[in-house]
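Q: Please design a sequence for this.
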């Protein structure tokens, strides 16, 4: 395998301390904490009731409502951050060969909301295995 050079030309961020790269950087520099009371589920029976959740994110500000409903939040976050990184890079406006542009993104965890929702729905059902078609993403590697 021949190694190739890679250049980071743009960044995107959607974090507990900022929903854009600019806000994230300002949060880092100012020492802002991302910890706050849990809002994504009822944590009243847990000893710990705070977490570092993404705050104030509305997927419909970035994605079509129908498309957003088909995606787990981690996938929404990935698309929004990737779009910000591409815009930050300025590559698409520069006339670069789009087939030579890519995005690398990372998530601390992904897809658990859909996993949880589907397991709960199955447990409440009659035992017939009915799952959302978006439950387990497929790829084309066979």
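A: Design:
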């Amino acid at each position: 395998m021949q190694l190739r050079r890679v250049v980071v030309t743009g960044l995107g961020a959607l974090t507990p301390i900022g929903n854009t790269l600019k806000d994230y950087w300002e949060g880092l520099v100012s020492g802002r904490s991302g910890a706050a009371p849990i809002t994504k589920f009822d944590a009243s029976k847990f000893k710990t009731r705070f977490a570092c959740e993404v705050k104030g994110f509305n997927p419909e500000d970035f994605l079509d409502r129908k498309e957003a409903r088909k995606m787990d939040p981690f996938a929404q976050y990935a698309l929004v951050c990737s779009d910000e990184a591409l815009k930050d890079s300025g590559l698409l406006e520069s006339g670069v060969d789009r087939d030579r542009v890519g995005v690398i993104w990372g998530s601390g965890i992904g897809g658990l909301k859909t996993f949880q929702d589907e397991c709960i729905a199955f447990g409440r059902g009659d035992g017939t295995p009915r799952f959302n078609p978006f439950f387990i993403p497929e790829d084309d590697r066979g």
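Q: Thanks. Anything notable?
A: The mean pLDDT is 84. The radius of gyration is 19 Å.
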